[in-house]
Amino acid sequence: MSRITVCALYKFVALPAFADLRAPLQDLLDAHGIRGTLLLASEGINGTVAGSQAAIDAMLAWLNPRVGEISYKLSYDDAQPFNRTKVKLKKEIVTMGVEGIDPQRVVGTYVKPKDWNALISQPDVLLVDTRNDYEVQIGTFKGAINPKTDSFREFPAYVQQHLDPQQHKRVAMFCTGGIRCEKSTAYLKEQGFTEVYHLEGGILQYLEDVPAEETMWEGECFVFDGRVSVDHHLQKGQYDLCHACRLPITEADKRSPHYRAGVSCPHCHDQHSPEQLQAFIERERQVRLAQARGEQHIGGEVSDVAERRRQEKVQRKVEAAEANKREG
């Protein structure tokens, strides 16, 4: 078995004193050599961390009396996929940006992975992928709709513009580990949709439980750690990561004239300012120097940089819309 256990976990639970958990949880992770990021908010806990199996077991045992039985998914890697250990305080553990959405109060109907194929094969079921566009591009369920969102904050607007409770009587949704669907199904229920279904445990649980010969999953599943993607056997997939835009890239992308390791790729070669490009070039130089010394360069985690990139993209859209209004 691989020596590193990767644990993706979340739980919606009322934590009015969540800030008090930060320091002791950080100390616990540090003491056990666990790396990754955990988010704490008044609505619960979410994150992905990695360490030895004994360390992960110790963390889960510590969390249990404090947050209750927690939903988690284990996978394995030969190398530590994270550089740092962080416990962050947040307003939401998964950011939708809509006040009052509470999966503890109302949520969609959970569907076990073994029953998922039968559900989504029914012609009157609308299947919606709640993940971001770059995640959907490398893999999704057969027949699933891609909302083409850049962040989960855009999902409510997609629902308002494209889904109708009178027309779409049965809606099934899925995400990587289940957490986004907790909120997306709760949101649809609040909007008057009656039959809303949720893949329990997310794509990762489906890939573990459903044999490859029976799968309706196509492609690989993006994960927010150094593995970038996993295949149907939950092993590291074929994708790498562009360290400039943090989008998944293939070997074919690396052969593009627009690809420069750590600096640009076909997705982002024309999107960075001269100042950004210079910063990327310097970072890549530091990475090479660290490798030559046999050291690990500590950069931003995938999830942090990806979120920052999404926020910048959303801000550009807002600015463009405002500019159009002024011109109109």
Topology, please?
Elements (H helix, E strand, L loop, with lengths): L3 E9 L6 H13 L3 E7 L2 E8 L1 H15 L3 E7 L7 E5 L19 E3 L1 H8 L4 E5 L3 H6 E3 L13 H8 L7 E5 L4 H12 L4 E5 L2 H8 L7 E3 L1 E2 L6 E2 L9 E2 L6 E2 L1 H4 L19 H19 L9 H26 L1
Parallel strand pairs: 2-5, 6-10, 7-9, 9-10
Antiparallel strand pairs: 1-3, 1-4, 2-3, 8-11, 12-13, 14-15
Description:
It is globular, with a radius of gyration of 20 Å. It is an alpha/beta fold and 328 residues long. Helix content is 36%, strand content 21%. It starts with a strand and ends with a helix. The chain contains ten helices and 15 strands. It folds into three domains: 86 residues, Alpha-Beta Plaits (2-Layer Sandwich), CATH 3.30.70; 111 residues, Rhodanese-like domain (Oxidized Rhodanese, domain 1), CATH 3.40.250; 73 residues, no CATH class. The strands form five sheets. Strands 4-1-3-2-5 form a five-stranded mixed beta sheet, with helices on one face. The chain has a four-stranded parallel beta sheet with strand order 6-10-9-7. Strands 8-11 form a two-stranded antiparallel sheet. About 2% of the residues have low confidence.
**Record field, number of beta strands:** 15
Instruction: List the domain count as a whole number.
Output: 3
DSSP strand (E) fraction? 15-25%
What is the H/E string? EHEEHEEEHEHEHEHEHEEEEEHHH
Which CATH class of the largest domain applies here?
Alpha Beta
Say what the CATH topology of the largest domain is.
Oxidized Rhodanese, domain 1
The main sheet orders its strands as: 4-1-3-2-5
Uncertain ranges = 300-306
Q: Name the CATH superfamily assignment of the largest domain.
A: Rhodanese-like domain
Q: Helix- and strand-based class? A: alpha/beta
Mean pLDDT, all residues? 90
Largest sheet entry = 5 strands, mixed
Task: State the CATH architecture of the largest domain.
Answer: 3-Layer(aba) Sandwich
